[in-house]
Amino acid sequence: MAHSTEILKHLKDIITSDADRVSYSFLVPNLKGLETALSVNSDSAGRDSRNLAESPQASQHKSDSDPAGNDTSGVATDVTQFFTPSTSNPLHEISVFTAATETFSRKNTNCSIDESLQRFRPVITLAKSRNIRVRAYISVVLGCPYEGPNVSPQRVADLSNQLIDMGADEISLGDTTGMGTAPKTHELLHTLERSGTDQGKLAVHFHDTYGQALVNSAVALEHGIRIFDSSVAGLGGCPYAKGATGNVATEDLVYFLHGMGMDTGVDLEKVAEIGRWISAELNRENGSRVGKAILNKR
Fold this sequence. Notes:
The relative contact order is 0.08. This protein starts with a helix and ends with a helix. Helices cover 50% and strands 9% of the residues. The protein has helices spanning 4-14, 31-53, 56-64, 73-82, 102-109, 113-129, 153-166, 182-194, 213-222, 250-259, 268-282, 289-296, and strands at residues 25-27, 93-99, 133-139, 170-175, 202-206. It has a 5-stranded parallel beta sheet with strand order 1-2-3-4-5. Strand 4 (170-175), helix 8 and strand 5 form a beta-alpha-beta unit. By secondary structure, it is α/β, with parallel strands linked by helices. The longest helix has 23 residues, at 31-53.
């Protein structure tokens, strides 16, 4: 979190178009964090709106109105559209984190589950008032490094519904330790279905510590889940889950989904190349079997 504001400022400086359809997620631990993000966003928007007002397009809007240029609604509309989260504004969404077990919650966020929910409430309320999308993560849904592999599916369902009721647009169910198996994944998703959780708001986030991420992804597909978290070259891990490896590799997941006849819109060759590059930059082994296979054929 120490450099998150610096990164957001950098994104504001380099992004000029939403043509690549990239969504950026800004982790917000509390209301102060969101206010900081909004202040960065506001400062940049103010600079860009002044630039836009001086642009040829702005001049054209004035010439289309009366000679005095009194009708500036065209300029105002452009500014509004340009800085809404759905266009070039990199604050496309904020994310909040809680956990399915008390011990992990205290280790990861230094508060109880209930306390974390109370922290989120004003954050989500403010975000929604600004038309900012909210993604909520629930960690250790299929196994906890402190409380063991048998995490209550009903607790996960209850947390999911509470977060949705607060205004969260999407819930990412995290198998942080990678302990999850096909039967446990089925039980969890079946419990969520029975609890009336909107399946369209669910995403899955499988770590591949025990090599089960793609198996669990297949189960999630059978339950109607269509949003999957992944990381290029299998990057990632968790400092509070000893031994946990990264998310399922994007290359492996995309290859699997394409093999199922699904269209992801992802160029697998290009992702494999990015996986090679970032692995070299970080001086770590490429964690994607598919990525390495594609690269080895060249």
